[in-house]
Design goal:
The structure is a homodimer of 156-residue chains.
Chain A (H helix, E strand, L loop, with lengths): L5 E5 L2 E4 L19 E6 L15 E7 L9 E2 L8 E2 L12 E12 L2 E5 L8 E7 L12 H10 L4
Antiparallel strand pairs in A: 2-3, 2-9, 3-8, 4-7, 4-9, 5-6, 7-8
Amino acid sequence: MAAIPKFSMQAIGHIRSPYRDTRDIPKGLGAKHKAEGSIEILAEFEAGLTDIEGFSHLFVLWAFDRSEGCSLVGTPPSDNRPHGVFATRSPRRPNPIGLTVVELLGREGPVLRVRGVDMLDGTPVLDIKPYLSSVAPELLRRGWLAEAEARAAGKP
Amino acid sequence: MAAIPKFSMQAIGHIRSPYRDTRDIPKGLGAKHKAEGSIEILAEFEAGLTDIEGFSHLFVLWAFDRSEGCSLVGTPPSDNRPHGVFATRSPRRPNPIGLTVVELLGREGPVLRVRGVDMLDGTPVLDIKPYLSSVAPELLRRGWLAEAEARAAGKP
């Protein structure tokens, strides 16, 4: 049997956010992520930001560096029922990668000012990608989350 | 100076796609990704798929396992001008993570049938997350890509 390949990742920069503790981060049904923060890219990677200013939104891939272990099934803050980790945004994932869509407000050299951070201050950033297109809202089905929202609203 | 922390990732499964060579994958302006394929999750992670069937679209995070090296600035297939790697989907990234939005067509146990694959057959999958909301199209700015599209259409 072949050895399982491992992929080694390292930070390209860090998040600056108002959140110092996971308890500070809005969670659960209806949580809005409007907090402003910044992405500070390490000097050696700054050239990779060339022309990023033209995009209004970015995907930020980051590491859950203060989360431990993995739970394949767990109950998220937005529901009282358990779901599989790949159907949630739980930090306790097989590979501790977070994904956040942020709005790009401006750039000063290696620093991107952004809106919509939901990461802890100091979180290591692994990658940034341009957000190029959206799935049309009328095509989206949101599974257990839509059901939890309906129950919270008192609908059957 | 503190050592740079490394994050070790491993495959949770693999992509089955019609593409055996990067030349087969549609690229460039107007490229559509409508190919069907599947995500085969390793048996040990199957419980993590619980309730994923309710979502119409998923984020798939995967590893560019057949890409080598990193170029901070490069010219993408959709333009004849160079851009920073964080403003493109280039495989030659500091951390070789790919991100694709797929439509979930069905699930049979550990296998997710999906539409919209743009990965090579056998690509290692690192994570799957539910796609919960879209940025409104009228709020999106698409930087150099919109400029390249306008030039290709003969607009100033």
